[in-house]
Amino acid sequence: MSDHSFKDELVAEIPGLRAFAVSLCGSITLADDLVQEALLRAWSNSDKFQPGTSLRAWLFTILRNTFYSQYRKHAREVQDSDGVYARGIAVAGDQESHLDLEDFRKALAKLPAKQREVLMIVGASGLSYEDAAEICGVEIGTIKSRLSRARSRLSDLLGLDERRPGAADPISDDGPASNRAIGPDVVRRRA
């Protein structure tokens, strides 16, 4: 089939395609877009049309498949013209995390060796105070004291506020904090 005769047959099928598209979409505007898309697909795949078969059936199949492809695509999309949904699922950038890690490494290196050791054994490795005391050959109270001082010193070096929401309670989580960190509000809670 020549391109000219194929084009003429496509044009002759437009009214039927349009009626079918309106029945699928329920909107004349959307139906016109659907017909246009189906005709473009048919034209670009004209080499796949087998002469002697029904061009109308082939075009209706293309239009129907195009409609359902678009329908599935739109079903996964969310109407968010004001951007509320997009702001809610946005992921914070990760550009500065390597800088934070480098700051942490530098601060960790400034800790005394015994505090750094306990922080790594308990904090990073997840071992218990008892296991850390056995590894270091000291009492559990010494481990707790070193750990508390290490955490406090790291917070100071990194400029973190120990009283921020969600921060660990120096009394309940790790035993008594150093005397420097105990204030009147902490003393009242102990009583």
The biggest beta sheet reads: none
CATH superfamily of the largest domain: Winged helix-like DNA-binding domain superfamily/Winged helix DNA-binding domain
Strand percent estimate = under 5%
Whole-number count of domains: 2
- Termini separation (Å)? 96 Å
The number of helical elements comes to: 9
* CATH level-3 fold name of the largest domain: Arc Repressor Mutant, subunit A
Instruction: Give the mean pLDDT.
Output: 80
Q: What is the helix fraction of residues, given as a range?
A: 55-70%
SSE inventory with pairings:
Layout: H1 3-25, H2 28-44, H3 55-76, H4 84-89, H5 97-109, H6 113-124, H7 129-136, H8 140-158, H9 184-190
Helix pairs in contact: 1-2, 1-3, 2-3, 6-8, 7-8
What are its keywords?
single chain, 191 residues, mainly alpha, Rna Polymerase Sigma Factor, Chain: A, Arc Repressor Mutant, subunit A, 0% strand, rod-shaped, disordered C terminus
Q: Can you tell me about this structure?
A:
The chain has helices at 3-25, 28-44, 55-76, 84-89, 97-109, 113-124, 129-136, 140-158, 184-190. The protein has 9 helices and no strands. 66% of the residues lie in helices and 0% in strands. The protein folds into 2 domains: 3-77, Orthogonal Bundle (Rna Polymerase Sigma Factor, Chain: A); 97-174, Arc Repressor Mutant, subunit A (Orthogonal Bundle). Helix 1 packs antiparallel against helix 2 and helix 1 packs across helix 3. It is rod-shaped. By secondary structure, it is mostly helical. Mean pLDDT is 80; it is low at 166-191. The N and C termini lie far apart (96 Å).
